[in-house]
Design goal:
CATH class of the largest domain: Alpha Beta
Number of domains: 4
Shape: globular
Number of strands: 22
Distance between the termini: 62 Å
CATH architecture of the largest domain: Roll
Strand order of the largest sheet: 2-1-5-3-4
CATH superfamily of the largest domain: Beta-grasp domain
Structural class: alpha+beta
């Protein structure tokens, strides 16, 4: 590692904040409230669901003449991940004694009652208007999908957004003062940040304030560190680790943060595939695929709110291996391949061969996901996907299904079908594929699909749905996927 430091530096409202001696797993929310007394940011759920803690975090744009902001749930983000970045809280919006147009409109339209959720709502809307000052209703509701309000209802909040957007000139935050400061705190010559386990809090006195936090700048450093510390916790979007810190008081011995590894943020596009680095966010993947794979993009949109999509990564969702992980059925149906790295060696593994059980996979000690290769749809190939959940947004799947196929001589061909929620890990539905392969759509029988499901899976009731419901929905999704296409063909 090229630099060892006990200081985290970030920009807040035109000044550089230097942090020393804090526990590695201190959350951004706790530091804002308890150390900086920025109490406008609230703690509601401490698990990224309610949005009361939403703040804006920014990095220098590609031209290095402005700051690109995203919303984050500060309850989930660990303080050292702010190093080299800029942060805006609800207190940052006050300019020359005046509130931001979003705040003024919220007041005028009676968009707040108890007010506890209001700062997070305001930050979500302000962030949206930085890049979209003419939002549609869908844009607004999507921006608010991670903000829960139990008092007011959302109509006055939506009305307030429309009213605020009448003030085009004053919506944009002035971040020019922060640009120079962000350039100053860039670790350009020695880009790797390493916070040692022991912190020098006072001269001579050494106090254990947490475990090692390392933020490498290259993928080679990542591989090397994992060889030395094979049990290190890899930190990307923190949507899972933040939960463990808050709810289980988990304190990993070694935290390896991937957020400053440029190679892992790369997206490469060829005529046949997209190669997506391990630090590419779900939001970026959603925009990458939405034109060619709109169903996949919609699954990702419903995966979580913008603060989750901006931070969570596709590789993290895959590595986490939840049995109801939403991205995996889509990726399996497309024939996705993972590039795994261990030390200087890499290997390629088909995603549908990656999982071995409940949150278990084939990765060896010190191995990590370096990139994901997603095949692009080819001529004649049909891709369909749908997520079923109790709530439309911000909810865990009962099941999510995805399917690819082509129509050849009026028959289904090259069928690939995958589900989550039916087994201990997301998986291909090989028995159902066999039922469908080579059949005319009108000849597919529901009873055949039911029999294949019964033979392929162990019946399990869960918190999200009974087995009777899940298995019925799984069959009906397959019928929907093929019959919709049949209706379109016959209608034309």
């Amino acid at each position: 590692m090229s630099e060892v430091t006990n200081t985290v530096r970030f920009v807040l409202d035109g000044r550089v904040v230097e942090v020393k001696g804090e526990r590695r797993t201190t959350t951004v929310l706790d530091y804002l409230r308890e150390d900086l007394r920025r109490t406008g940011t609230k703690e509601g759920c401490a698990e990224g669901d309610c949005g009361a803690c939403v703040v804006m975090v920014g990095e220098l744009n590609a031209a290095q003449n402005g700051v690109d902001y995203v919303t984050v749930n500060s309850c989930l983000q660990l303080l050292p991940t702010l190093d080299g970045k800029s942060i805006k809280t609800v207190e940052s919006l006050k300019l020359n004694g005046h509130m931001h147009p979003i705040q003024e409109a919220m007041k005028e339209c009676h968009g707040s009652q108890c007010g506890f959720c209001t700062p997070g709502i305001v930050m979500s809307l302000v962030n949206m208007t930085q890049t979209n000052s003419h939002p549609t209703r869908l844009d607004i509701t999507d921006a608010l999908s991670g903000n829960l309000c139990r008092c007011t209802g959302y109509k006055p909040i939506i009305d307030a957004t429309y009213r605020a957007c009448e003030h085009q000139a004053s919506l944009r935050l002035d971040d020019q003062a922060d640009v120079a400061l962000l350039k100053d705190i860039l670790r350009a010559d020695q880009p790797t940040l390493s916070l040692e386990g022991d912190l020098i809090v006072q001269p001579v006195v050494r106090t254990k304030k947490g475990n090692e936090f390392v933020s490498p700048s290259s993928v080679d450093e990542v591989a090397d560190y994992l060889i030395k510390h094979p049990n290190a916790t890899l930190l990307a979007g923190s949507s899972e680790i933040g939960l463990q810190v808050n709810k289980e008081f988990h304190r990993p011995d070694h935290i390896l943060y991937l957020g400053h590894v440029k190679e892992l943020k790369d997206i490469q596009t060829t005529p046949s595939l997209w190669k997506v680095g391990a630090m590419v966010s779900l939001e970026d993947v959603m925009h990458l695929v939405k034109e060619e794979l709109p169903d996949f993009a919609e699954v990702l949109r419903r995966f979580g709110s913008p603060p989750i999509r901006f931070t969570a990564t596709l590789a993290g969702n895959i590595a986490n291996g939840s049995p109801i992980g939403d991205s995996m059925p889509c990726l399996m149906a497309l024939g996705t391949t993972l590039i795994l790295r261990q030390g200087s060696k890499t290997r390629r593994v088909d995603l549908d061969a990656f999982y071995t059980g409940l949150k278990k996979n084939i990765m060896q000690a010190s191995e990590f996901i370096q990139a994901i290769e997603i095949p692009r749809p080819q001529a004649g190939q049909i891709f369909v996907a749908h997520k079923v959940s109790k709530r439309f947004e911000q909810d865990i799947s009962a099941t999510c299904a995805a399917m690819t196929y082509v129509i050849k001589n009026e028959c289904l061909s090259q069928v690939r079908l995958a589900f989550n929620g039916l087994s201990p890990s997301p998986s291909r539905a090989f028995a159902l594929e066999k039922v469908l392969e080579g059949k005319r759509i009108q000849d597919v029988q529901a009873s055949e699909l039911d029999q294949a499901i019964a033979k392929s899976y162990t019946a399990r009731d869960g918190l999200r749905a009974t087995w009777a419901y899940r298995s019925l929905v799984a069959r009906n999704l397959v019928l929907k996927f093929i019959n919709t296409q049949f209706s379109e063909v016959t209608a034309s």
